[in-house]
Amino acid sequence: MANPYSAPAADLNSLAGEETYEPQVFAVNGRIGRMRYLAYSLVMSLLAYVVFAVLFGIGMAIGGMGVGFIMLLLGYIPMLAVTFILARRRLNDLDKSGWLSLLLIVPLVNLGLILYMIFAAGTAGTNQFGPQPSPNSTLVKVGALVTPVLFVVGIIAAIALPAYQDYVNRAKQAEAAAQEAAQYDEQADSQEAQYGQDDGQYESQDGAEEVSSDDSQYGTSDDAQYETQDASQEEATSESQEDAPTETP
Question: Are 70 and 83 in contact (CB under 8 A)?
Fold first, then answer.
Protein backbone atom coordinates (compact mmCIF):
# COMPACT_ATOMS: atom_id res chain seq x y z
CA MET A 1 0.00 0.00 0.00
CA ALA A 2 1.41 3.37 -0.98
CA ASN A 3 2.10 5.89 1.72
CA PRO A 4 -0.42 8.72 1.30
CA TYR A 5 2.00 11.12 2.96
CA SER A 6 4.94 10.47 0.63
CA ALA A 7 6.12 13.17 -1.83
CA PRO A 8 4.79 12.89 -5.37
CA ALA A 9 7.11 11.14 -7.78
CA ALA A 10 6.30 13.40 -10.70
CA ASP A 11 8.71 16.21 -11.70
CA LEU A 12 6.79 19.35 -10.84
CA ASN A 13 9.22 21.52 -12.77
CA SER A 14 8.49 19.57 -15.92
CA LEU A 15 4.74 19.77 -15.34
CA ALA A 16 4.92 23.51 -14.85
CA GLY A 17 7.06 24.01 -17.92
CA GLU A 18 10.08 25.17 -15.88
CA GLU A 19 12.66 22.87 -17.40
CA THR A 20 16.13 24.46 -17.24
CA TYR A 21 19.51 23.82 -18.80
CA GLU A 22 23.09 24.89 -17.98
CA PRO A 23 24.40 27.41 -20.57
CA GLN A 24 27.98 27.22 -21.79
CA VAL A 25 30.24 30.16 -22.51
CA PHE A 26 31.51 28.95 -25.89
CA ALA A 27 28.22 27.47 -27.11
CA VAL A 28 26.57 28.75 -30.27
CA ASN A 29 22.98 28.02 -29.29
CA GLY A 30 21.01 28.22 -26.06
CA ARG A 31 19.34 31.01 -24.15
CA ILE A 32 21.29 33.26 -21.78
CA GLY A 33 19.95 35.77 -19.28
CA ARG A 34 21.04 39.32 -18.54
CA MET A 35 23.84 38.48 -16.12
CA ARG A 36 25.23 35.74 -18.31
CA TYR A 37 25.17 38.11 -21.28
CA LEU A 38 27.30 40.63 -19.37
CA ALA A 39 29.63 38.00 -17.89
CA TYR A 40 30.14 36.16 -21.19
CA SER A 41 30.76 39.48 -22.98
CA LEU A 42 33.44 40.30 -20.41
CA VAL A 43 35.14 36.94 -20.90
CA MET A 44 35.09 37.28 -24.68
CA SER A 45 36.44 40.84 -24.50
CA LEU A 46 39.37 39.80 -22.32
CA LEU A 47 40.17 36.90 -24.66
CA ALA A 48 39.91 39.25 -27.64
CA TYR A 49 42.43 41.66 -26.12
CA VAL A 50 44.89 38.80 -25.62
CA VAL A 51 44.35 37.50 -29.16
CA PHE A 52 44.69 41.01 -30.62
CA ALA A 53 47.97 41.57 -28.76
CA VAL A 54 49.38 38.25 -29.96
CA LEU A 55 48.29 38.81 -33.56
CA PHE A 56 49.66 42.35 -33.60
CA GLY A 57 52.97 41.14 -32.18
CA ILE A 58 53.21 38.42 -34.81
CA GLY A 59 52.42 40.91 -37.55
CA MET A 60 55.02 43.36 -36.29
CA ALA A 61 57.62 40.58 -36.18
CA ILE A 62 56.79 39.44 -39.71
CA GLY A 63 56.44 42.67 -41.65
CA GLY A 64 56.17 45.74 -39.43
CA MET A 65 53.27 48.03 -38.60
CA GLY A 66 51.24 47.41 -41.76
CA VAL A 67 51.19 43.63 -41.33
CA GLY A 68 50.36 44.12 -37.64
CA PHE A 69 47.20 46.07 -38.49
CA ILE A 70 46.21 43.46 -41.07
CA MET A 71 46.51 40.77 -38.40
CA LEU A 72 44.33 42.88 -36.07
CA LEU A 73 41.70 43.11 -38.80
CA LEU A 74 41.75 39.35 -39.27
CA GLY A 75 41.32 38.88 -35.53
CA TYR A 76 38.44 41.34 -35.41
CA ILE A 77 36.30 39.21 -37.74
CA PRO A 78 35.81 36.26 -35.33
CA MET A 79 35.33 38.72 -32.46
CA LEU A 80 32.50 40.33 -34.42
CA ALA A 81 30.97 36.89 -35.00
CA VAL A 82 31.10 36.15 -31.25
CA THR A 83 29.34 39.45 -30.57
CA PHE A 84 26.44 38.50 -32.85
CA ILE A 85 26.25 35.00 -31.33
CA LEU A 86 25.91 36.37 -27.79
CA ALA A 87 23.32 38.90 -28.94
CA ARG A 88 21.31 36.17 -30.70
CA ARG A 89 21.34 33.96 -27.61
CA ARG A 90 20.19 36.87 -25.46
CA LEU A 91 17.40 37.77 -27.90
CA ASN A 92 16.29 34.13 -27.92
CA ASP A 93 15.95 34.34 -24.14
CA LEU A 94 13.63 37.30 -24.74
CA ASP A 95 11.67 35.13 -27.21
CA LYS A 96 12.88 37.32 -30.08
CA SER A 97 14.44 36.31 -33.38
CA GLY A 98 18.20 36.29 -33.55
CA TRP A 99 18.04 38.28 -36.77
CA LEU A 100 17.46 41.37 -34.65
CA SER A 101 21.14 41.16 -33.70
CA LEU A 102 21.90 42.68 -37.11
CA LEU A 103 20.68 45.98 -35.67
CA LEU A 104 24.02 46.16 -33.85
CA ILE A 105 25.55 47.50 -37.05
CA VAL A 106 23.08 50.42 -37.20
CA PRO A 107 24.34 53.54 -35.40
CA LEU A 108 22.25 54.74 -32.41
CA VAL A 109 19.84 51.83 -32.91
CA ASN A 110 22.55 49.47 -31.66
CA LEU A 111 22.74 51.45 -28.41
CA GLY A 112 19.02 50.98 -27.80
CA LEU A 113 19.29 47.28 -28.60
CA ILE A 114 22.18 46.81 -26.17
CA LEU A 115 20.26 48.55 -23.39
CA TYR A 116 17.22 46.37 -24.15
CA MET A 117 19.29 43.18 -23.93
CA ILE A 118 20.91 44.30 -20.66
CA PHE A 119 17.81 45.40 -18.75
CA ALA A 120 14.89 43.39 -20.21
CA ALA A 121 13.95 40.23 -18.32
CA GLY A 122 13.92 36.95 -20.22
CA THR A 123 10.92 34.72 -20.81
CA ALA A 124 9.90 32.70 -17.77
CA GLY A 125 10.01 29.00 -18.51
CA THR A 126 10.39 27.38 -21.89
CA ASN A 127 9.82 29.41 -25.04
CA GLN A 128 10.12 28.68 -28.75
CA PHE A 129 13.94 28.78 -28.54
CA GLY A 130 14.40 26.31 -25.73
CA PRO A 131 14.28 25.85 -21.98
CA GLN A 132 15.01 28.53 -19.43
CA PRO A 133 18.66 28.92 -18.29
CA SER A 134 19.59 27.60 -14.86
CA PRO A 135 20.12 30.05 -11.97
CA ASN A 136 23.23 32.17 -12.17
CA SER A 137 26.33 31.00 -10.35
CA THR A 138 28.42 33.23 -8.09
CA LEU A 139 31.08 33.59 -10.76
CA VAL A 140 28.49 34.76 -13.28
CA LYS A 141 27.14 37.32 -10.82
CA VAL A 142 30.64 38.66 -10.11
CA GLY A 143 31.38 38.95 -13.83
CA ALA A 144 28.07 40.72 -14.44
CA LEU A 145 28.82 43.25 -11.69
CA VAL A 146 32.41 43.83 -12.84
CA THR A 147 31.45 44.50 -16.45
CA PRO A 148 29.62 47.84 -15.91
CA VAL A 149 32.34 48.96 -13.49
CA LEU A 150 34.98 48.34 -16.16
CA PHE A 151 32.77 50.09 -18.70
CA VAL A 152 32.53 53.21 -16.51
CA VAL A 153 36.26 53.09 -15.79
CA GLY A 154 36.91 52.82 -19.53
CA ILE A 155 34.79 55.91 -20.21
CA ILE A 156 36.56 57.87 -17.47
CA ALA A 157 39.93 56.75 -18.80
CA ALA A 158 38.94 57.74 -22.34
CA ILE A 159 38.14 61.23 -21.06
CA ALA A 160 40.90 61.59 -18.47
CA LEU A 161 43.86 60.21 -20.42
CA PRO A 162 43.66 62.73 -23.29
CA ALA A 163 43.18 65.53 -20.76
CA TYR A 164 46.18 64.31 -18.77
CA GLN A 165 48.24 63.99 -21.94
CA ASP A 166 47.29 67.54 -22.88
CA TYR A 167 48.32 68.70 -19.41
CA VAL A 168 51.66 66.93 -19.74
CA ASN A 169 52.25 68.50 -23.16
CA ARG A 170 51.38 71.96 -21.81
CA ALA A 171 53.71 71.46 -18.85
CA LYS A 172 56.54 70.40 -21.17
CA GLN A 173 55.91 73.40 -23.41
CA ALA A 174 55.90 75.76 -20.40
CA GLU A 175 59.12 74.18 -19.10
CA ALA A 176 60.75 74.51 -22.53
CA ALA A 177 59.63 78.15 -22.74
CA ALA A 178 61.03 78.84 -19.27
CA GLN A 179 64.36 77.25 -20.18
CA GLU A 180 64.48 79.23 -23.42
CA ALA A 181 63.73 82.46 -21.53
CA ALA A 182 66.44 81.64 -18.98
CA GLN A 183 68.95 80.97 -21.76
CA TYR A 184 67.95 84.23 -23.46
CA ASP A 185 68.41 86.16 -20.20
CA GLU A 186 71.79 84.49 -19.65
CA GLN A 187 72.92 85.37 -23.15
CA ALA A 188 71.69 88.94 -22.71
CA ASP A 189 73.60 89.27 -19.42
CA SER A 190 76.78 87.86 -20.97
CA GLN A 191 76.46 90.18 -23.97
CA GLU A 192 75.86 93.16 -21.67
CA ALA A 193 78.94 92.27 -19.65
CA GLN A 194 80.96 91.89 -22.83
CA TYR A 195 79.73 95.28 -24.06
CA GLY A 196 80.75 96.80 -20.73
CA GLN A 197 84.23 95.38 -21.05
CA ASP A 198 84.48 96.65 -24.62
CA ASP A 199 83.35 100.13 -23.54
CA GLY A 200 85.97 100.19 -20.78
CA GLN A 201 88.62 99.10 -23.23
CA TYR A 202 87.57 101.73 -25.74
CA GLU A 203 87.60 104.42 -23.04
CA SER A 204 91.13 103.37 -21.99
CA GLN A 205 92.29 103.51 -25.58
CA ASP A 206 90.69 106.93 -26.09
CA GLY A 207 92.35 108.25 -22.91
CA ALA A 208 95.73 106.95 -23.98
CA GLU A 209 95.34 108.46 -27.42
CA GLU A 210 94.37 111.84 -25.92
CA VAL A 211 97.38 111.81 -23.59
CA SER A 212 99.67 110.85 -26.46
CA SER A 213 98.19 113.58 -28.63
CA ASP A 214 98.65 116.19 -25.89
CA ASP A 215 102.23 115.09 -25.28
CA SER A 216 103.07 115.23 -28.93
CA GLN A 217 101.39 118.60 -29.29
CA TYR A 218 103.09 120.18 -26.29
CA GLY A 219 106.44 118.54 -27.00
CA THR A 220 106.61 119.72 -30.60
CA SER A 221 105.58 123.32 -29.90
CA ASP A 222 107.92 123.67 -26.93
CA ASP A 223 110.87 122.21 -28.81
CA ALA A 224 110.26 124.50 -31.74
CA GLN A 225 109.97 127.49 -29.41
CA TYR A 226 113.17 126.58 -27.61
CA GLU A 227 115.03 126.09 -30.89
CA THR A 228 113.81 129.50 -32.13
CA GLN A 229 114.96 131.14 -28.94
CA ASP A 230 118.40 129.48 -29.18
CA ALA A 231 118.76 130.55 -32.79
CA SER A 232 117.84 134.13 -31.89
CA GLN A 233 120.34 134.21 -29.05
CA GLU A 234 123.09 132.84 -31.26
CA GLU A 235 122.33 135.40 -33.95
CA ALA A 236 122.36 138.24 -31.43
CA THR A 237 125.70 137.10 -30.05
CA SER A 238 127.27 136.90 -33.46
CA GLU A 239 126.03 140.36 -34.36
CA SER A 240 127.37 141.84 -31.11
CA GLN A 241 130.75 140.32 -31.78
CA GLU A 242 130.85 141.80 -35.27
CA ASP A 243 129.88 145.31 -34.07
CA ALA A 244 132.55 145.43 -31.33
CA PRO A 245 135.78 147.53 -32.34
CA THR A 246 138.84 145.59 -33.05
CA GLU A 247 141.77 146.48 -30.68
CA THR A 248 145.13 147.19 -32.34
CA PRO A 249 148.39 146.41 -30.55
Answer: no
- Spatial distance between the Cα atoms of 145 and 142, rounded to a whole number of angstroms: 5
Question: For residue 4, what is the DSSP state?
Answer: T
Half-sphere exposure (Cβ direction) of 36: Cα atoms closer than 13 Å: 25
Q: What is the pTM of this model?
A: 0.58
Please write the tens of the pLDDT for every residue from 176-198.
Answer: 888 888 888 888 877 777 776 66
Closest CA to 23 of 132, 143, 106, 172: 132
Tell me the per-residue pLDDT of 20-29, one tens digit each, with 9 for 90 and over. 889 998 899 9
Q: How many CB atoms lie within 10 A of CB 60?
A: 15
Residue 57 contacts by C-beta under 8 Å, 6 or more apart in sequence? 68
